[in-house]
């Protein structure tokens, strides 16, 4: 731990590394990890739970009066009335982990009176540690990071996450994805939103968008992005997004370019924009004219 870092950030790093060591040990024999299903395509493992326990024990060991908001245990630990709230995703990318696909991370953020002040995203498989403190910049393994400098959408690599829960509007998402894909150099779907945001902060990706995310998916990553010089908000560009289940992040120029493309798919879009999207979806759903054997419409 660095003596130059804020004490609270140092404790978060200690907690993330302890969880990462546990995750790495489990990854050596991932076939033996017990898996339960929270809902369709939404998994939790004994590793998520053990990782969360060690994080909470480390944080409350140092700050017993702080509150906890964790993915698996909610707010049952810590002091519920504290202005300090630790927001924890003990294993973001669980589906990747249980398949042995090495894209997952630990995400820990500290909010004070509703504002994210400290952030850690730790990738245990690569030993990559992303950290940020409000006003002090963002770092990868103690090296300062900045968002990319690309200015045109056509040159950009964008990351995203696909909807996978029952009730998600898959058709609308695919239309939004198509709109983005046609305007960029490439779209990737790594499967761990906290790491996606960290990669935007580091300039590895130029932007990121996803719907259906919870606060523990985006809290730490959002501070990394802003401290690296980027912007983060909902699909219409509003900065108060943490609990809105929409996240858009990018360098400032690309952020501005993405809003007109995906803003109309936001739940906060205007009535006219929503009608336009519905009409487009309805048109796409209409059966095409039957084609003859030579490919011409009959």
UniProtKB/TrEMBL annotation:
<keyword id="KW-0460">Magnesium</keyword>
<dbReference type="InterPro" id="IPR020583">
    <property type="entry name" value="Inositol_monoP_metal-BS"/>
</dbReference>
<dbReference type="Pfam" id="PF00459">
    <property type="entry name" value="Inositol_P"/>
</dbReference>
<feature type="region of interest" description="Disordered">
    <location>
        <begin position="279"/>
        <end position="298"/>
    </location>
</feature>
<protein>
    <recommendedName>
        <fullName>Inositol-1-monophosphatase</fullName>
        <ecNumber>3.1.3.25</ecNumber>
    </recommendedName>
</protein>
<dbReference type="GO" id="GO:0016787">
    <property type="term" value="F:hydrolase activity"/>
</dbReference>
<dbReference type="InterPro" id="IPR033942">
    <property type="entry name" value="IMPase"/>
</dbReference>
<dbReference type="InterPro" id="IPR000760">
    <property type="entry name" value="Inositol_monophosphatase-like"/>
</dbReference>
<keyword id="KW-0378">Hydrolase</keyword>
<dbReference type="InterPro" id="IPR020550">
    <property type="entry name" value="Inositol_monophosphatase_CS"/>
</dbReference>
<keyword id="KW-0479">Metal-binding</keyword>
<comment type="similarity">
    <text>Belongs to the inositol monophosphatase superfamily.</text>
</comment>
<dbReference type="InterPro" id="IPR022337">
    <property type="entry name" value="Inositol_monophosphatase_SuhB"/>
</dbReference>
<feature type="compositionally biased region" description="Acidic residues">
    <location>
        <begin position="288"/>
        <end position="298"/>
    </location>
</feature>
């Amino acid at each position: 731990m660095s003596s130059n870092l804020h004490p609270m950030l140092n404790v978060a790093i200690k907690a993330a590394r302890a969880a990462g060591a546990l995750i790495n040990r489990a990854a050596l024999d991932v076939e033996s990890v017990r898996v339960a299903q929270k809902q369709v395509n939404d998994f939790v493992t004994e590793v998520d739970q053990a990782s969360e326990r060690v994080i909470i024990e480390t944080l409350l060991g140092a700050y017993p009066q702080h509150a906890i908001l964790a993915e698996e245990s909610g707010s049952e630990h810590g002091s519920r009335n504290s202005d300090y709230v630790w927001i924890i995703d003990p294993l973001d990318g669980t589906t990747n982990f249980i398949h042995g696909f090495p894209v997952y991370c630990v995400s820990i953020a500290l909010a004070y009176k509703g504002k994210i002040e400290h952030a850690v995203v730790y990738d245990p498989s690569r030993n990559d540690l992303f950290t940020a403190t409000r006003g002090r910049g963002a770092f990868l393994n103690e090296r300062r990071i900045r968002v990319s400098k690309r200015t045109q959408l056509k040159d950009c690599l964008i990351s995203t996450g696909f909807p996978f829960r029952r009730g998600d509007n898959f058709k609308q998402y695919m239309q939004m994805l198509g709109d983005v894909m046609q305007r960029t150099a490439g779209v990737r779907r790594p499967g761990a939103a906290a790491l996606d945001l960290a990669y935007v902060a580091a300039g590895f990706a130029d932007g990121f968008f996803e719907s259906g995310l919870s606060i523990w998916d985006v809290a730490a990553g959002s501070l990394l992005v802003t401290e690296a010089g980027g912007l983060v908000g909902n699909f219409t560009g509003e900065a108060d997004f943490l609990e809105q289940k929409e996240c858009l992040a990018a360098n400032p120029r690309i952020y501005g370019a993405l809003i007109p493309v995906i803003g109309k798919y936001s739940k906060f879009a205007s009535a006219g924009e929503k009608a336009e999207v519905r009409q487009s979806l309805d048109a796409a759903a209409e059966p095409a004219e039957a084609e003859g054997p030579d490919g011409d419409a009959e």
